[in-house]
Amino acid sequence: MTDARISTSLPSHPKTKKLVKRLGIAACWHLVRLYLFAASNRSGGSLAGMTDEDIELAVDWLGGDGEFVNALKAVGFLDGAAGRYEIHDWADHNPWVAGAEVRSAKARWNAVKRHHGEDQADRQVPEWASLRASSNAVSNAASTVVSSTAALHDEQSSNAPSPSPSPNPNPNPNPNNTGASAPKTATEDVIDSNREKPAPTPKLQAVSIEELVAAGVDEQHARDWLGVRKAKGVPLTRTAWQSTVAEASKAGITSAEAVKVAAENGWRGFRAIYLTGYNGRSRVGSRHAPYDAGPEVTL
């Protein structure tokens, strides 16, 4: 590690003020030196195996022997006894640094595993192997506790009759045998609450007869045309109506005339080409879709 975290509240912390009172302002610099030394050499925050003199030499303390270490212990910057000191709350204040050794061991274990398998990785990197085994044991224990708790909850909350003498569970746990389903467990409730709900289907906004009449269409023509579309299963959406108005303009007629022609011919939609054909000649008044107009387009 090349750095360490130092809280912005360190200068005003009561422990720091007590340290300054005992050893002077220079002691703060040596405290910072201790944090940096630990980040580089003792990433877990443990100074085990180091004597008081070793610690003071590591931070270049020039005062009396043991003076700096004793002050750190007195104000609470160091925990533990001589030879087994630990920097107070190191893992809380420097979690990334504190996990450096573990990350390194894990990386080495994975590298060996890729080439030689898990057994060889466990032998070559025992520190990670032991942590991994412990983690798996804790995980399994937690799973057992959760399963046992869920089972106990089901047993206490369920209305199901005792399976005795038959070992098979009763398919209908309702004591009145009415066909009602069993109450949900806590786990099922959580799953149901987290399950993504399907988005509601938006309601189709169809154009009404009144709106067509307001647009200048004869009421009977409007009824006839909407009847044709309904019979063919094609409601008149607003988009389809806007397209009809545009196509009527292309054909040089009003939208009311377009509806009249469509109703007369039993067309569910209207296209300008229905009247002009591909040769451009007008077919207004024709009672049949032009033969050269192509297939009717659904609108």
Rg over alpha carbons: 42 Å
Number of helices: 15
| General shape | elongated
Low-confidence stretches: 278-282, 285-299
Helicity level:
40-55%
Q: Which class best fits the helix and strand makeup?
A: mainly alpha
User: What percentage of the residues does DSSP assign to strands (E)?
Assistant: under 5%
- The strand line-up of the biggest sheet is 1-2
The largest sheet is:
2 strands, antiparallel
* End-to-end separation: 68 Å
Question: In words, what does this structure look like?
Answer:
The chain is an all-alpha fold. Helix content is 55%, strand content 1%. The protein has a two-stranded antiparallel ribbon. Helix 12 (219-231) crosses helix 14 (255-265). It is elongated and about 110 Å long. Mean pLDDT is 77; it is low at 278-282 and 285-299.
Set down the secondary structure blueprint:
Elements: H1 14-23, H2 26-41, H3 52-58, H4 67-75, E1 78-79, E2 86-87, H5 90-93, H6 95-98, H7 100-116, H8 118-124, H9 126-157, H10 186-194, H11 209-214, H12 219-231, H13 238-251, H14 255-265, H15 273-276
Antiparallel strand pairs: 1-2
Helix pairs in contact: 1-4, 7-8, 8-9, 12-14, 13-14
Q: Can you give keywords for this protein?
A:
about 300 residues, mainly alpha, two-stranded antiparallel ribbon
